Amino acid sequence: MQGTLALSWRILANKSFSSSSMTPLVCLDRPDIWCPAPSPSEVSSHLTHDYNEHTAAEINGRSIANEIKATLATQVSNMKNSINKVPGLGVILVGKRKDSRTFVRIKKKACEQVGIASVVTELPDDCTESEVLDAVSMLNHNESIHGILVQLPLPNHLCEEKIINSVKVEKDVDGFHPVNMGNLAMRGREPLFIPCASLGCIEVLNRCSVEILGKKAVVIGRSMITGLPTSLLLQRHHATVSVVHSFTKNPEEITCEADILVSDVGVPNLVRSHWLKPGVVVIDMGSTLVKNSSDVCGDVCYEEAMHKASAITPVPGGVGPVTISMLLSNTLEAAKRAYQWTQKS
Ligand SMILES: NC(=O)C1=CN([C@@H]2O[C@H](COP(=O)(O)OP(=O)(O)OC[C@H]3O[C@@H](n4cnc5c(N)ncnc54)[C@H](OP(=O)(O)O)[C@@H]3O)[C@@H](O)[C@H]2O)C=CC1
Ligand SMILES: Nc1nc(=O)c2c([nH]1)NC[C@@H]1CN(c3ccc(C(=O)N[C@@H](CCC(=O)O)C(=O)O)cc3)C=[N+]21
């Protein structure tokens, strides 16, 4: 087992960017994000390792996100200089949920960092469905808003389906509109936007030179926000994907086959050591707020996984910040399309 771990770590650290020969999935112009191969030094700069080969490399999502944000900030500034426009994100926040308010605050701050304008429309917990639909409609018609995000979950009395369907497909930077999700699921079709957490997952794997093509990937969770689009996107990158959910019997028998394990559940410490194959790359998307604290907790028992995996994203500081940078990237793409502006090389 130790041999396997040592080998997989060496592969991870030394391999050149294996996905560079792959056609980018999205027809988005994502220079410097999907395309170029990171140099070995760039790869290792996102991985911290204590030089003990029997523990996993920790993937530094904050440094990946900072790199992406620096690229986006340059492009936003170029757009401003060339056409005197900046991308705009409209967020609708319903109610007082602490986690939702935190996530919206993080998104707003990230927009400021790269020069994207953001407006947050706040509605009370007991607002009516037509008030939310009106708020979406205002943003749909606002020419300085290029991306719209309705923070989920919504209070139970509101119909999530109806509200998501009302977002203009061209402004659906979350990628949750059925047209975008449907196109993601259908081979040969290109969605205008892919959900940010799924993009974040692939971005982390790409930037750490983890090969996806031909690998066995297991996704735990099948929600619209994370699990479902992540399994679809991993398939587009030619992984063989299995999906585990709340009705799966003996999930550990499936997860322990995975070369890449993605967990999108929201149950702290669900994934234990015996769920993992030695050398697996673990992407922990779980982000649960710990009760009576501002700490967040992932789905994977980190201390146990450290001794089994070859690389792992921590929580916080793993895939979460990369997800946020993908929202910024989608918003910039939306603005580029709206203004038919392309970055001159
Ligand atoms: N880091 C990031 O970038 C992001 C993190 N998140 C986080 O991801 C987590 C999941 O969010 P979200 O997808 O919205 O949550 P949902 O509650 O919508 O979905 C949870 C999924 O996990 C499955 N599930 C629940 N319990 C188990 C179990 N014991 N074993 C296996 N599967 C189980 C459910 O199965 P079933 O379908 O059968 O009900 C469902 O598919 C949250 O912590 C959220 O905060 C979300 C978005 C981005
Ligand atoms: N319309 C909509 N779109 C979403 O994309 C969406 C949503 N609703 N509802 C909730 C989930 C959750 N989600 C996260 C994004 C970033 C972090 C993130 O950046 N987490 C930080 C920690 C955050 C903290 O410190 O509280 C980290 O992991 O380092 C977490 C979770 C997006 N979601």
From TrEMBL:
<dbReference type="InterPro" id="IPR020631">
    <property type="entry name" value="THF_DH/CycHdrlase_NAD-bd_dom"/>
</dbReference>
<keyword id="KW-0521">NADP</keyword>
<protein>
    <recommendedName>
        <fullName>Methenyltetrahydrofolate cyclohydrolase</fullName>
    </recommendedName>
</protein>
<comment type="function">
    <text>Catalyzes the oxidation of 5,10-methylenetetrahydrofolate to 5,10-methenyltetrahydrofolate and then the hydrolysis of 5,10-methenyltetrahydrofolate to 10-formyltetrahydrofolate.</text>
</comment>
<dbReference type="GO" id="GO:0009853">
    <property type="term" value="P:photorespiration"/>
</dbReference>
<feature type="domain" description="Tetrahydrofolate dehydrogenase/cyclohydrolase catalytic">
    <location>
        <begin position="59"/>
        <end position="174"/>
    </location>
</feature>
<dbReference type="InterPro" id="IPR036291">
    <property type="entry name" value="NAD(P)-bd_dom_sf"/>
</dbReference>
<dbReference type="InterPro" id="IPR046346">
    <property type="entry name" value="Aminoacid_DH-like_N_sf"/>
</dbReference>
<dbReference type="InterPro" id="IPR000672">
    <property type="entry name" value="THF_DH/CycHdrlase"/>
</dbReference>
<comment type="similarity">
    <text>Belongs to the tetrahydrofolate dehydrogenase/cyclohydrolase family.</text>
</comment>
<dbReference type="InterPro" id="IPR020867">
    <property type="entry name" value="THF_DH/CycHdrlase_CS"/>
</dbReference>
<dbReference type="InterPro" id="IPR020630">
    <property type="entry name" value="THF_DH/CycHdrlase_cat_dom"/>
</dbReference>
<dbReference type="Pfam" id="PF00763">
    <property type="entry name" value="THF_DHG_CYH"/>
</dbReference>
<keyword id="KW-0378">Hydrolase</keyword>
<dbReference type="GO" id="GO:0004488">
    <property type="term" value="F:methylenetetrahydrofolate dehydrogenase (NADP+) activity"/>
</dbReference>
<comment type="pathway">
    <text>One-carbon metabolism; tetrahydrofolate interconversion.</text>
</comment>
<dbReference type="Pfam" id="PF02882">
    <property type="entry name" value="THF_DHG_CYH_C"/>
</dbReference>
<keyword id="KW-0560">Oxidoreductase</keyword>
<feature type="domain" description="Tetrahydrofolate dehydrogenase/cyclohydrolase NAD(P)-binding">
    <location>
        <begin position="195"/>
        <end position="338"/>
    </location>
</feature>
<keyword id="KW-0601">Photorespiration</keyword>
<dbReference type="GO" id="GO:0035999">
    <property type="term" value="P:tetrahydrofolate interconversion"/>
</dbReference>
<keyword id="KW-0511">Multifunctional enzyme</keyword>
<dbReference type="GO" id="GO:0004477">
    <property type="term" value="F:methenyltetrahydrofolate cyclohydrolase activity"/>
</dbReference>
<keyword id="KW-0554">One-carbon metabolism</keyword>
<dbReference type="GO" id="GO:0005829">
    <property type="term" value="C:cytosol"/>
</dbReference>
<comment type="subunit">
    <text>Homodimer.</text>
</comment>
